[in-house]
Amino acid sequence: MSRDRAVSDVVGFVVVFSLVAATVGIVSVTGIGILQDARDAEQVNNAERAFDVLADNMADIHRAGAPSRSTEIKLDDARLEVRSSVVINVTGVDPSGTNPNVSYSTTPIMYEGRGDTAIVYEGGAVFRDSPRGGIVTEKPPFRFADGGVIIPIIQTQQMGNTTSVAGGTVRVRAERAVREPLPEFVQRASDYDALIVNITSPRHRLWQRYLEDDAEATCTVTRPETVQCRIDDPERLSVTRTLINFEFEV
C-alpha cells in the first residue's frame, strides 16, 4: 500500500513538474515575442515623433525662411537612409495650350527598424508605410481652400557621401539653398482650366489618398508608382520651389 502511494506521489510530481516546465517554456517563448513586438512598435512610434519634428524643422526653412535646422533622431538598432528620388510634376492647363510645366526630383529620408514599418519624409510630408498599407502622419505643405491652390515643391537633396547610418543617435542637418516662386506660373489662376499634379513615388497611393481627400482631386494611376491628380478650375494659384540640402551627422 505504501509502495503504491509512493509510486503515485512520484507520478504526480512528474506530471506537475512537466506542466510547470511546459507552461514556463510557452510563456517564455510567447512572452519574449510579445515584448519584442511591443519594443519594435514603441521604437517606430518614437521615430514617427522624431520625423514630425524633422518636418517642422524643414517647414521652418521652406515656409519661414530659416537658413538651417538640425534634427536628432535616436536609432537604437534601426537604420536611417536616403532612398531613390521621387518626382513631383506640376502642369497648368490653359485655353491657349501653353500649359506651363515644371518637374523636380526630391530625395526621401527613410527610417527602417526591425519590423516591416518604415517612416518616410518626402516632399514635405511624413508617411508611415508598411506592406499592409500606410497613412499620412504629417501632410505635405500644399493648401487647398476657398478655390485657392498653393503648391510648395520641397526639393530635398543630399550633401556628402553618407547614405545610410545605423545605431546610436544621428543628426539630420538641413540648410536652404534655393527658395523661389516659379515664373512658369505667373499668370492669373483664372487663366487655368485645371492644375495637374503627377507624383512618381513608391508611396503614390498615399499621395493619391491625400490629394483626393484634401484637394477633391480626380486621381488615376497612370503607370507603375505614378499617380496623376487633376484639380479643376483653381481660382488662385501659387507654385513655389524650395531646394533644401541635408546631410547625416553621426
Polypeptide structure, described:
The chain has 2 helices and 16 strands. A hairpin with a 2-residue loop joins strand 7 (125-130) and strand 8 (133-138). The chain has one domain. The longest helix is centred in the first third of the chain and has 61 residues, at 2-62. With 250 residues, the chain is α+β, with helices and mostly antiparallel strands. It has a 6-stranded antiparallel sheet with strand order 8-7-6-5-2-11, sandwiched between helices.
Task: Give me a quick take on this structure.
The chain is an alpha+beta fold.
- Give the class from helix and strand content and strand pairing: alpha+beta
Q: Radius of gyration from the CA trace? A: 26 Å
The share of residues in helices is 25-40%
Mean pLDDT, to the nearest integer, reads 87
Number of extended strands: 16
**Helical stretch count?**
2
Low-confidence stretches: none
Helix-strand sequence = HEEEEEEEEEEEEEHEEE
Identify the strand order in the major beta sheet: 8-7-6-5-2-11
N- and C-termini, Cα separation: 76 Å
Regarding quaternary structure, what we see is single chain
> So what's the overall shape?
elongated
Question: Into which percentage range does the β-strand content fall?
Answer: 35-45%
Number of domains: 1
Mind summarizing the main beta sheet? Answer: 6 strands, antiparallel
